[in-house]
Amino acid sequence: MGVEGKDKAKTLEAGAHALSGQLGRTVQRLRKANALSLSELSEQSGVAKSIISQIERNETNPTLTTIWRLSRALDVSIESVLQTDEDEPFLERSSRGDTPILVSDDGKCRLAITGWIKTVEWLQWYDFHADPGGVLASDPHQRGSVECLSVLEGELEVEVAGAVDVARAGDTLRYRCDRPHVIRNRSLAPARAAMVCILKAAAME
User: Fold this and answer.
1) Which one of 22, 53, 129, 141 has the fewest CB atoms closer than 10 angstroms to its CB?
2) Residue 84 binned pLDDT confidence (cut-offs 50, 70, 90)
3) Same domain, yes or no, for 187 and 131?
């Protein structure tokens, strides 16, 4: 990610803090709007009551799986869970430390959310980093969604419904992401890519 050691840890911690703070407020608002107690949301989502409480108090950095389970239980999209109620200015600057970061379940892949929060329902973009051996498995997005992965450093493998292709620095893979898809770093070196997800693209038949 361009930083090492303590600086790298601080960057990840700051990004995680920004995401968890935003997420905690939104989860609490949606839970109360649905008249759900912590115990009821825990039962419906499969996420421990103590974890939900920590998320709402901004005391933990949830995984993608946890966010997905909560969004399903609250009957909203994962993108909606990550939104805020505050109006954003037209001219906006985000520092590296303010950029929210999602971490894969294996802890080896990181998605820095560089896109604008107001476009998340139809357009999302990320700065994607994968350590050697990292795997990011994603559930299908809405029908017709397309993802573009432009590799900037290293090498990444993409698998979509059994089809597999590999992209190296300078290559771009475009694929439908309305079905299960996986990004892997099978190499011995870190990989980085720009990822753009178009959620309302025309269906590819």
Assistant:
1) 53
2) low
3) yes
